[in-house]
Amino acid sequence: MAEQPKKISIVIPVYNASTVLIELQKRIDGVFKEINIPYQLVLVDDCSRDDSWSVIKEIKSQFPENITAIRLAKNFGQHNAIACGFHYCSGDYIITMDDDLQHPPEEIPKLIKKATENGADVVYGISDKYKRSLLRNTTSIVFKVTTKYTSASTGNGSPFRIIKKSIVKKIITHNQQFVFIDELISWYTKNIEFVVVDHKASGLKASRYSGYKLMNLYFNLVFGYNALPLRLITYLGLIASFISFLVGLFFFIKKMFFNVRVGFTGIVVSITFTAGIILLSIGVIGEYMRRMYNILNAQPQHSIGEILE
Fold this sequence. Notes:
Spore Coat Polysaccharide Biosynthesis Protein SpsA, Chain A
């Protein structure tokens, strides 16, 4: 059994969540008073369009010793906001969770207990029943299944997690523009555990993740953290070459031995098939080149507009 943490930091990326932030903080404060562990709450406002930052400053004024408030200069995305918050954590363990009360703060002790029982580097809080819309549940399942086979992450992760400070220190050494926390975790440890937690319906009326944002996140993960698409292009090129050879051999035999007039249909089909593969390959290579361009230009992972420590 691992030693009880002396202090825990909670990092919460905030986006258009002004209506639930006060309740969220009060419930977190109540949980840590009950378990008698000092805590630090790092609220990272990802350039919200509502008055979330004003609410965060109000919370900070009421709990100055416990709250670290950060406002990003522009919207960088959930994972980048979490990575920003990691830089300001002082706890032995760091908990990450969403801002919309889907992860009940009352479930935090389960993460702590699991992490300290066997010294796990990371513990994910997962649920059997996620209370989300059918579309969101479907896209989430597709995302997890596909990323399990296209990346090194487990594919069973969750934004509700507890991470040892030693792993967080390694994660913050990365300065690439796009960050995916679960993928970086999988680079440094396999000592990962899971615990079943309750999952509630969102306390916010509207989802902040549109279909476009989910798709963009997926493509960033696929093209940003592995070379599988390039490998698939190689296999696709070999298959296309073999098919083209068979098609050419077929028409050659028809012409030479059966004196059959070769029309334009076969030629058009061959050209269209080959052109499609070429365009697909160029598109995939272009995605990698765009990300290399971003790295060479040192696009920032995040930019802080204001911070209250």
